[in-house]
Structure formats: C-alpha cells, structure tokens
Design goal:
alpha/beta; two-stranded antiparallel sheet; 18 helices; 10 strands
Length: 391
C-alpha cells in the first residue's frame, strides 16, 4: 500500500491535486502482495503478472473510501500543489524575482535574475512551475555526489524533473553557470561539467579522470591499472564507477594537476615512466577527478589551469579544498606566455575574478583581455615536472 500511496501523492501534487489519471507501480511475482492489492483495487481485472500495473486514481479513491472510510485526499493528508493555476501564474509574473531572492538569499545572483527577465522563453506562463521549483533544487546544492535523479526526486518528487528536455533543468543549469562563472551550457558535455561542479553525478561511467604517474599501494584491478600504466609511462583513464568500487591509497610524493589532456600526452612522450603523479581534470573537475583528488589530501597538491577566469576560479577552489599550491599560475608566467603570439579574447560570458594568490596576475589578464591555454607553456610544465622527478 505504501508504494501505491507514494505514487498517488507524487501524481496528485503534479496534477493540481485532481483525482484523475493513472499511476503505475511495479508488480510482479517478486511482489505478490502488491500485485494482489492492485488486482483487488481494479476489480480483479488483471489476470497475469506484469512488470507494472496501471491503477486509476479514481478506483484507488473509491477502494479507500469503501475499505478505510476516507478517500485518497484525506488518506494522504497535507499535500503540496506543485502546479500553478492561471491566476497564480499571473500573480507570480509580478513577484517571482522577490520570491527567489527571499528563498535563496545571497545565492540569488542578480545577473541570473536579469537574464531570466530578458529571456522570454523562460518567463512565459508555461515555465512558471519550473521557476517556482528552482529554489528547491538550488537549496540542495552544492552536494556531495548525489545522483541527478535522486536530486530531482528529493526536490520535486519527480525523478525525471531534471532531465535534459525539462525546463527546470535549463533554469537550474543557467543559475549554476552564473554562480560558477562559466558560460551557459550548450552541449551535453558542458551540462555534465556544471552539474558535477555542483556535486551532482549525471552518471558514474561518463564521469572520468585522466592520470599518469599515479602509483598506489593496492594490488586490486584499479591498483594494477594505475601502477602498470605508470611503470610503462602510459596515461590511464578512470571512471567514477571504478573509483567508487575500488579505493586507492597513493604511495607518496606530490601530485600535479592540469586542465588539458595535451599536458598528459606531453608528459607521456617526454617523461614516460619517470613522470611524477599528474592528474588531468579535462576542464572543471569531474566527480571522478574530485574523488581521486580526495585521496591526496595528505600530499602536496600543485594545481594549474588555463589562464582564463574559469581557470583562476578553479585554482582558488583547489587552494580552499586541497590546500593546493598554484603551479605556474603566476603573473610572470602569464606575461611571458601571452607575449609569444596571438591569443583568443576572453568570452563575454566568462566573468572576471581575482587571483588571491597573485593579485598582479588578474590585473595583467584584465589589461590584456587575452586567454592563454596550457598548451602554450608545455615546455615550462615539462621542465617543472622533470625537476620534481629528480628530487
């Protein structure tokens, strides 16, 4: 009965509390009591086991009234209508910015609110239900490895509410993009990066981290992959699923962190088996990257990224999270690199920020208006890694 009532509650709260439509519950030989109950509610019409049984809410309401003395709405008790009437939508159109500010407090980014006001498709009547649920989702973030479907269920009661094709996902991702200081996502990969930066796991197989030179004490499958790859000077790629199944303990020494796979490839060519532990985040650190980095908490972490505002923010977070030391992320390195040739200008959507570890760096970057990718300073990075190897 609990499974039926949970499904009914979710359906009603997303259907203006109207007792209409059907709910579906799993019912099979593995759950004979539930199957028999559904069969009784439906008047004995089911004649064989199926994976799911569809139960009309009207029939569940009638059965509860006859057998328990009260209907479905009374049985479930207080319900929250998560759908808005037309009148409520008209009223919400006027005061939604104030409500979001009240519910999110300092996290209500004014740039995001301004963008919502000017983005017609997000403030149409059909989107107000999603807009009203947005603070519920953001209020649960950042998280620690929660799955996307679990987040959706906890915040809305609907496991599919944050699927890619849902308006709520678009609005939440836009808020997170402004909060993280990155462009709004335009691809599956950029969406995944934003979710994972907020501690949300889209799936455990697509979340990956690239390494070379990482050696561990364990002799299990992942331990052998890391150690043998390091001995051969070959990069390895690990998924969050693998790192969840197998815990690892580094053997010692510092760990270096870069942003781009080209640095890993250069280290494999240049240093091979002599390369110290090097981890590539491939952009913003994924859940897999953060899980691996967590095991280096007692080691010296040297961190760098591209010379853009996202790279500066990621480095600042690494200093806070891992007590990382910036690795060639200084004004002198930037000045030398930007003078070597043409560079792309900063993206308009990439919000400038400070570099607390080197105030001159952010000043230079603002003055030049140019990004510098890691690939341009690969010779300096290889020289730095070679010095670490010889210590």
């Amino acid at each position: 009965m609990a499974a039926l009532l949970d499904a009914a509650r979710s359906k009603l709260e997303r259907n203006h509390l109207r007792v209409e439509g059907n709910i579906r519950v799993p019912a099979s030989p593995d759950a004979p009591d539930l199957w028999r109950l559904c069969n009784a509610i439906r008047g004995g019409r089911a004649t064989s086991f199926t994976r799911q049984i569809s139960v009309p809410l009207t029939e569940l309401d009638r059965w509860l009234l006859l057998n328990c003395g009260q209907g479905l709405l009374q049985t479930l008790g207080p319900l929250h209508n998560k759908r808005m009437s037309d009148d409520e939508k008209d009223a919400y159109r006027e005061h939604w910015p104030r409500e979001i500010r009240n519910r999110l407090g300092a996290r209500a980014d004014e740039r995001w609110l301004a963008w919502l006001r000017t983005s017609g498709k997000l403030v149409q009547n059909s989107n107000f239900d999603a807009l009203r649920l947005t603070p519920d989702v953001l209020g649960m973030l950042p998280a620690e490895g929660i799955s996307l479907t679990e987040l959706a269920e906890r915040a809305t009661g609907d496991t599919k509410a944050l699927s890619r094709d849902r308006r709520l996902a678009s609005i939440v991702l836009s808020a997170l993009a402004f909060e993280q200081g990155v462009p709004r996502p335009e691809s599956v990969e950029s969406e995944r990066a934003i979710w994972e930066a907020a501690g949300v796991v889209v799936d455990t197989l697509s979340s990956q981290v690239m390494t070379i030179g990482v050696r561990v004490h364990e002799k299990h499958l992942i331990g052998r992959i890391l150690n043998e790859s390091s001995d051969e000077g070959v990069p390895s790629i690990l998924t969050l699923d693998q790192l969840t199944r197998y815990s690892v303990t580094p053997t010692g020494g510092p760990v270096f962190v870069c942003e781009n796979p080209a640095v890993i490839a250069a280290a494999a060519r240049t240093l091979g088996s002599q390369c110290p532990a090097l981890i590539c985040t491939q952009g913003q650190p994924s859940a897999a990257a953060r899980r691996l980095l967590d095991v280096f908490s007692d080691h010296h972490v040297h961190w760098r990224g591209d010379f853009d505002w996202t790279g500066l923010r990621a480095t600042a977070r690494a200093i806070a999270d891992y007590e990382a030391v910036p690795w060639l992320m200084d004004a002198e390195t930037y000045r030398t690199a930007v003078g070597r040739g043409p560079s792309e200008p900063f993206k308009e959507s990439d919000t400038p920020c400070d570099a607390p570890w080197d105030t001159e760096l952010s000043t230079l970057m603002k003055a030049s208006g140019k990004t510098v990718m890691e690939e341009r300073i690969i010779p300096e990075l290889m020289a730095s890694l070679r010095v670490a190897t010889n210590r």
